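Complex record, two chains
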Amino acid sequence: MAELLFEIFSEEIPARMQVRAGGELVRLMDAALKDAGLSPNDSHVLTGPRRLTYITDVETRSPDVSEERKGPRVGAPDRAIEGFMRGAGLDDIAQAETRSDKKGDYYVAMIHSEGRDTADILRDAIPAVMNDFPWPKSMTSGESDFRWVRPLRGLTVLLDGRSLDGIEVGGIASDNLVHGHRQMGPGPFAVATLADYKAALDGDGHVMAERKARQERILDQACTVCSEAGLELVEDEGLLDEVTGLVEWPVALLGDMDPDFLELPDEVIRLTLKSHQKTFTVRNEGGQLAPHFVIIANLETPDDGATIKAGNAKVISARLSDARFFQEEDRKRKLQDYHDDLKDLVFHKKLGSMHDKAERVAALAREIAPHVGANPILAEKAARLAKCDLVTQTVIEMTSLQGKVGRWIYEHDVTLGRADSLPSAHPDESRDPADAEASDLDPGVRRGEREWGEADHHAIAVAIEDHYKPQGPSDAVPTEPVAVAVALADKIDTLVGFWAIDEKPTGSKDPYALRRAALGVIRLIASNSINYGIDLSSLKLPLRRVFRDADNAIRRFTRESLPKATLTDNTVNIINEWERRLNLYGDIGRSSISDIEAEIRLSDPEPMKIEADVHADVSAFLKDRLHVYLRGQGHRHDVIDAVIAQGGDDLLAISRRVEALGMFLLEEDGEDLVQGYKRAANILRAEEKKTSKPSARPDGSRYPADGSAESGAGSQIEFGMSGVEYSADEARLLAEALTKTRPAIDAALEAADYPAALSALADLREPIDEFFEAVVVNSDDPDERARRLGLLSAVVETFHRIADFSRLDG
Amino acid sequence: MTDSPAKPASFQELILRLQTYWSAQGCAILQPFDTEVGAGTLHPATVLRSLGPKPWNVAYVQPSRRPADGRYGENPNRLQHYYQFQVLMKPNPVDLQDRYLGSLDAIGIDRTVHDIRFVEDDWENPTVGAWGLGWEVWCDGMEVSQYTYFQQVGGMDVDLVSGELTYGLERLAMYVFGVDNVYDLPFNAPGLPTSLSYGDVFRRNEVEQSEYNFEHADTDNILERFRMAEAECKALLALEKPLPLPAYEHALKASHLFNLLDARGVVSATQRPEYVKRVRDLARGCASAWVKGEKARAA
């Protein structure tokens, strides 16, 4: 084995791309070498701002390979023989061996491919790998067509102690020269071995090429400069990762800032330093932010970094002055005074402004509130305030502070006594009277008989900050009821809205993060144990408002800019439908929506089709995401399928059923019971085929879940019909067990006690087993046969009350 | 900041040093374009000349106008009229990065004590349909230049990649001279009877232009001029033998007039993309007519 080193030297690679690029380089080089018959061993990579270096152990030559290739029969047509010779590289058919089998003689060519020198393999493999390198964004430079992340400046390939010169990629030829730190040791340094390479970079070159070592040194130095001053570094993994990709020779420096800036919220200071200056914050022994920062410079200087510290301090001071200015400006107005400004902020061009969205979310939050134990008035208020900070300077500058800034301003308002302490009639009087009715759960508060206390303001403040959560699979889930109501409403509105305008996620594309919104809904419901079905009642309200806002927005935008042709058919349908209703009923706000809907239903058999389609789609999407979520929790996919197929929109109930069924199947009883079910179902299915009665059920399930008489057996005799007598003891026993079990199961389901429902179901195990042992379903007596099939049908139906067991594996 | 002997003495000397330096790198030193532009990139010497198959190496100072950034001469960091120094080398020489670093040496930034960094920043100007990959160049955490390898201009892939360097001259000068207020910059050699500060030269202009931009600009009039510029540009492009250079001047005028309307606060958030699109269509039309002309001449 020989040592192979391959360095790609370029202008500065974006920090965020380096690690991934390193991984790709190893993967692609290993694959290319293996394809050529080599076996690279212990491959690894060095990554940094200006270089990617692949290092491995590999043979100096690939092995010779001999292969026999079977050819055509002796005497086959010339063309076949010529083709064979060409493929096997023979000049004359005499070079092939002749062998015989039962059918006669045929040709066999012995193909020897000689091994190749690894050096030659590399001359092909390196350009191939680099020409096809998967950068997330790449560019050409000068006159060349070669694409790389930034201009390529050098290549060095060292194999077995010598440099392979002249391998050309993108106009750059490999040589034995490596370049060090731009300022502290540019070189170039002539190298022939890995040891030379490391010595050159670690020594005079002043480059820490290995990322992990560099990162450790950064953290170590940063902690040291802090502790020397009696301070502590505020660690930040993301920032550490980033600065590791920005420096070749890290030097941590402790800089000073004006202590006056510490009046700013910690988050603002931390984010300003991090995002604009790639600088760490520092705290004192008491845990408060200290008036210092840690910068990771890229060089040692004769003045020990004094100039660098002073320069950074000046920029940081300017940045924090801006932040302070923005904060002061933002606080001059009450949070709710920003609400009207949201009209100028487009949420989506077909879904209206952020103001429209906030109003929709407020109405929906009020509906959801009682289901999650929140005060509807507070939820509505919080939702209306929640988006206000989007138009503040601070959030425009630092988007990731959305929510937080709103909370700060609101708390400031409360401190100054200028936040509403009574629910006032809000300025937007265009609300639907129907909505007002629905939310009138606390008439006392609505009429302003009770002043809001500290707890109410706190609930609103938390909801403003937390309503975006959870943002990802590991983000914390809000638990404060008002926050939960607003968070759910915000996400449901987003889902319904984008569905209504036909902007669903496809494949890997999900520009509006709708999968994340759906997962958010699921996690909010699961973690807070909310028994709240995502059914028509929770989707209808936002949908109706989405239609109206979409309509307004589209009128506005079509008038101003958008050609009509850019609208999707679905949107046009929605608008047409909505316009029709407006024309029919005048001002939509004046009469109750449900009255209008009732009238429309009478006048038009399919008026609600669009709403129903969107609803069904969103529900299906949520269930699909629930499936993914439950899989992530370790549940069996067939168990999840079985439960979801059973129906129902209550996401929490689905989760609990999946849990209970999963546990149940781990028990011996469970598996046996499933076998009994399958046997019953198979007999019924066979019977169904025999009577060739096609399944009429569009969902593909074979048995009516309601156990009605049109069961698959084509039987006229139904379980439970009076006067039905069972001729065998075992059948009678099963019938009795069913009669006893069904109410128990229903009661348990009603109480959402799924383990109890399953254990009641388990009582059927023995009677079913005995039935199959002793009873022949296919009796010669047609009545008896019908009775027995009816009994099996009832068994299947009973199982289906809990889950569609036919979807279980095994 | 350590005092380096190579430090220029004034704002104008800093400009002269950059011109001398880039002249020595083979760039033609052009003079500013005489129509209002929002950035040095919009000079036809960059936007149009970065297209087409001919090599082109230039450097120039370009006054840039951003009406909404005016602060009545009261903000030490913000100006509605300021200078950019622009370098365009097409095709970019292999060692452009080293040459750029050389220009920092030329204006007295001592790289043994200053931490120079190239931080990812991909540049995009939707108005002229241009984008490229590159960096912000940081000096001790402060952005001193924008460095871009153009990939597309006018919505078209470039034939040769240009390296574009943009220095914000006032900010760079404030840094080099250690001055906190732009108006305190020495405009020419300080300490002489003839010495002028940046404020002596420009403060009154900042005050008056801010008053104009924010308070007195006649929006009906400007709107009408916007339409006229747009119509003129389109007409010149619609000629049997289109005239992309004069047309482009009218596109620039439309762009500046839009910026004025914006500063006056008469453009709503929903109208904004509409105006941007109109200007973009003009600029792209000019770029594509220019390229056609260049290719016809080259053929």
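Note: Residues 211-331 of chain A form one domain.
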